[in-house]
Amino acid sequence: MFSITLFLLLQFVRQFVECQNLSSSLSSPIATVSQTSTGSSAFVTNVDLTLEDFWDLYVGPVSTFSINTTVEPTPVPSSSLIPPPPLYYPSFPTGQQVPFQSKNESWKFPKDFWYGVAGAAYQIEGAVKAEGRGPSIWDVLTHRVPNYVVTNDTGDVADNHYYQYKEDIARIAALGIKTYSFTLSWSRILPFGAGAVNEQALAHYDDVIDTCLDYGVTPMITLYHWDLPLFLQNSYGGWLSERIVPHFNEYARIAFGRWHSKVQTWFTLNEPIVFCGFYPFPINYFKKTDIPDVQQPYYCGHHVLLAHAAAYHLGKQINDSLSISLKHNGGYKIQRTDSEEDAIAVQRSWDFQEGWFSDPVFLTGDYPRYLREYVSTFLPDFTEEQKQMINGTSDIYAHDAYTSDFIMAPDTGIEACTRNESHPLFPLCYNTTKLYANDYWAIGAAGDPGTPWLHQATDWVPAFLHYMQDTWKPRGGIAITEFGMSEPYESLKTNLASILIDPVRSQYYRDYLEAILIALAEGVNVVGTLAWSIYDNLEWGQGYGVRFGIQYVNFTTQERYFKASAFHYVNMFDTYLEE
Ligand SMILES: *[C@@H]1O[C@H](CO)[C@@H](O)[C@H](O)[C@H]1NC(C)=O
Ligand SMILES: *[C@@H]1O[C@H](CO)[C@@H](O)[C@H](O)[C@H]1NC(C)=O
Ligand SMILES: *[C@@H]1O[C@H](CO)[C@@H](O)[C@H](O)[C@H]1NC(C)=O
Ligand SMILES: *[C@@H]1O[C@H](CO)[C@@H](O)[C@H](O)[C@H]1NC(C)=O
Ligand SMILES: *[C@@H]1O[C@H](CO)[C@@H](O)[C@H](O)[C@H]1NC(C)=O
Ligand SMILES: *[C@@H]1O[C@H](CO)[C@@H](O)[C@H](O)[C@H]1NC(C)=O
Ligand SMILES: *[C@@H]1O[C@H](CO)[C@@H](O)[C@H](O)[C@H]1NC(C)=O
Ligand SMILES: *[C@@H]1O[C@H](CO)[C@@H](O)[C@H](O)[C@H]1NC(C)=O
Ligand SMILES: *[C@@H]1O[C@H](CO)[C@@H](O)[C@H](O)[C@H]1NC(C)=O
């Protein structure tokens, strides 16, 4: 009885909160909403929504871990720093371990090339309700939306990085890795996305940064990696509304203002193609919108470009020696046959993927041709002033370049698709496959079945890097800001020694870095790489069922272990980094 009554009450408050315009209440962590109901017997009421209420309404109880205060680093056992045997398998058994295959003397990474590892707040931090953090959309997606995460996992504990970051940074440093790229949780710093600042969160990130500096590890920060403060999604639809732009700007102002003197390299937003592609969200959990489903990603993208550009200029104003860039993704597009239709399909694919955000920030301030043809039917054109503001707002081309695809026209041809909104490939109107034109061989070794988008495709990396440089001409060069491999079936393994040998991932890093060395030898300006990921973590909709770490984490005990790939990664720099 009680629970049913409470449930109905919560449903009421929930609908109520969703339907209201909450912008006026954003100045305080207690959200007070006032609104007239829509029924015939209209009435006015107030709901005082504390942070705790907000969690209870939208997320419910969360899990915690036994280590729940910041802990000093566990010393890294020296035995765990012995490289795996052997790093290279000679073609003829010599009875000896060979530390590395013979070095190609034409290759080198320039002295200032940076190499590191990356992670993202919701995927690794855990401690989701600790020290005043507000909920993000991902707390709702993991807790409330059935089957959104195939394993039903949440980020409640994840890698417990929020409390164990000192150990995590010490371990990176012990391996010899010099860069750590992490992301800030917007809803830790601003629990309701805007308004009152949570000082505990600022103090936390102060110490993460200072710990990096103490260990000689360069921190790099990404402001936004998909964990949108829930309140902003519920107030106005998050990225669907231009109202996000000043809120993102305010958040960026706090971060740049506090950390610009200690952190030089910044990324504003991570992979907008992907997070804009999350729209439309599952209905009934977030604010409703009238924007047609198929158009929602492009509304999101529009506001991403405006928010990114505004934040870029703000950061430069605060300190013009910062390096600030948008973080892109996509892959090399290989024309599957030499037909003219497939050539057009390839260009459509560049335009709807990399070009969507890269043409505006590097070339024109505006969308590429095929994308513009579509979005101009419903989005407002950027004004000349907006184009000027957007153009030139990335110092490096930061690309999360995991893999590549073969691209071809739809079976129906392209035009039958662009003219037909019901076509399954509309509005992209190109098709992709991982199979060669013989429909027999895959492009390369497959990752885990949970990541069908990912096969090793390192043969195409040099061509891809040339394409990026020639097309978008980034003034500060190209950085591969994420790359990595989901070792097939890794999460099914229970034997520690088996888990720690990860041959598919090791090969991927070795081949990929060789491909970068080839491109460097050919004159492409690649300036850094970040391996994804620092360790196993919550792989979004795949939960902990897909693993990307160069370290294994036992999620029962939160103990960390280096995998063989960590040594393969570092060894390439030990061998090829210029003195
Ligand atoms: C919400 O409030 C803001 C600020 O008062 C206003 O600019 C905006 O038009 C309102 N939106 C709606 C849908 O009422
Ligand atoms: C922290 O964990 C301990 C057990 O390790 C538990 O007794 C305590 O209640 C926890 N504190 C908080 C604030 O969750
Ligand atoms: C996840 O939860 C849903 C609903 O609670 C349930 O139907 C499903 O079987 C669960 N999936 C797994 C993998 O446990
Ligand atoms: C500007 O940023 C750079 C890089 O982080 C830093 O070295 C410098 O001290 C900052 N300038 C000021 C005035 O703080
Ligand atoms: C965009 O900026 C680049 C330099 O960053 C410049 O070469 C180009 O002409 C600009 N494009 C437009 C349309 O203003
Ligand atoms: C897209 O390609 C797949 C093969 O990868 C094919 O089965 C499918 O029919 C194609 N779809 C369209 C609409 O062309
Ligand atoms: C549009 O696409 C749908 C789905 O593929 C198809 O059933 C329909 O016949 C197409 N309409 C036209 C006019 O081609
Ligand atoms: C993880 O830790 C648990 C608890 O100590 C242990 O039972 C399990 O074997 C460990 N898993 C691996 C792969 O070492
Ligand atoms: C060494 O690198 C150069 C430049 O990339 C390349 O042309 C050559 O084939 C490489 N040699 C070997 C043995 O791989």
Characterization of this structure:
Pfam families: Glyco_hydro_1. GO terms for molecular function: beta-glucosidase activity. It comes from Massariosphaeria phaeospora. It is a single chain. The protein is of the alpha/beta class. It has one domain (59-90, 104-576): Glycosidases (TIM Barrel, Alpha-Beta Barrel), CATH 3.20.20. 37% of the residues lie in helices and 15% in strands. It is built from 20 helices and 13 strands. The strands form three sheets. The protein has an eight-stranded parallel barrel, surrounded by seven helices. A two-stranded antiparallel sheet has the order 1-2. Strands 12-13 form a two-stranded antiparallel ribbon. β1 (31-36) and β2 form a beta hairpin. α17 (461-472) packs across α19 (503-521). The longest helix has 23 residues, at 296-318. The chain is globular and about 60 Å long. Residues 1-45 have low confidence and may be disordered. The site of one 2-acetamido-2-deoxy-beta-D-glucopyranose has 3 residues, from loops.
